[in-house]
Amino acid sequence: MKSRQFVCNDSRIIDLLDRFIPVVDSPSNYEGYGVQVDRSRLQYRLVDQILGQTVYRQISGAQGLYIVTPSGKLIAGTTEHSNPSRVLAEMRKGLEAYSQMPKSERLLPRTPDPKTDKIETLTDDPKPPRDGLVLRMVSRGLPTPGVSEQDTRHESFYKLDRVWFTREQARSFLPAELKSGAKTSVRGPALNLLVRLNLGTFIQPNPAWNAEDVRSAVLNSEVSSVKGNIVEVRFSGDAELRSDNRYSRRSYAPKLLGNASYDSRTKAFTKFELLAVGTHTVGDVGEDARTYARGPEAMPLGVLLTINGTNANDRVVPHFHRAYNAIARER
Amino acid sequence: MRRLLFVLMCWQALPSWTSSAEAQELAPATYSQLRVKIDVSSEELCWQKVAWQPFWDGLVAAQQQDRPIFYWIYFGDPRGGC
Description:
By secondary structure, chain A is α+β, with helices and mostly antiparallel strands. Chain A folds into 2 domains: 2-117, no CATH class; 133-329, no CATH class. Chain A has helices spanning 11-16, 42-52, 84-100, 103-106, 114-117, 167-171, 189-198, 286-291, 324-329, and strands spanning 21-25, 64-68, 74-78, 133-141, 158-165, 183-185, 214-227, 230-242, 251-263, 268-281, 298-307. Chain A has an 8-stranded antiparallel β-sheet. In chain A, strands 2-3 form a two-stranded antiparallel sheet. Chain A is globular, with a radius of gyration of 23 Å. By secondary structure, chain B is mainly alpha-helical. Chain B has a domain at 43-82. Chain B has helices at residues 2-23, 31-38, 55-65, and strands at 53-54, 69-73. Chain B is rod-shaped and about 55 Å long. At the A-B interface, strand 1, helix 2, strand 2, helix 3 and strand 4 of A face helix 2, strand 1, helix 3 and strand 2 of B. Strand 1 of chain A pairs parallel with strand 2 of chain B, so a sheet runs across the interface.
């Protein structure tokens, strides 16, 4: 499976991007369930104008790689996210069209003003908790006979997300007393966020687990050593997650293993690794029935959580961020 | 005879199938191997060489620098893997 980052991994495209301003966006920033934005603002009007010129003719559902002017004119682009040659051709076409266009047409008549023109977006404006723990999540199917390369569960396809914990939630991954041999069973918001939103959720169409889907979830933490202010811990556990409703009949039953280093002076994790591996099954209702009719029902799936990176692109808001507050309040 | 041959073939195939299944079972002995299989490689993250900007920041920069915008839009966020 060629992930949607496939085209942008092509070195020819990366080189040519020097001549553009590279922008990422999501239609869910502007329209969809619970999204309320001021549609009179310039940002909304420009996005509406741009996507209105694509084959989608609207914001909702629009996807692709497009060349646009700051004034909102679509001058090239394609929906073929797995075809680098096509994207390259569109980029060149866009550069040519841009150079031929009068400045008055390609630019806005004035500098955009954040006070009156910008809108808050779900994918960029929320910020991680101060002094909290930010993890990177990678989810990937393990090699399994019979899984087509067109199936996003194929091992060549990965899912990437971030997980945010407050400082207090992060501390709950450790025993109260930080001495060698001390143990605890992680509970509460940290475990809920981890399990409900990250373990086995990133299989198309990416449903999070409801509270009743969590049949069991155990994460044990044990201090293995203390050297000065550095506390080493080991994680182990397992979970049984199973949905059984008219939208989803899925399950995931991973074992969990990991380790972490915690600096008791700065009260921050300097290393955090948690690996979940187990059998994931897709059901026969909702989108599962359509999407996975050709592949095996059950296959091994892995989820790896590590400390987030420092690349500019690592500052991504968690996919399920809007559910964080509600889940953190649950017991 | 054919049935016997089939049973023998299955029997021979069993150890490799079992070891493959065991290799995908999470345990201290398989942790490192599974971690590598699941994690993203640097080749898969070449797109991160580019500092992708949110629409607003990109719009302001494009207007100031008089450059075209490469607009990568996907449901969720293209920087995730949905």
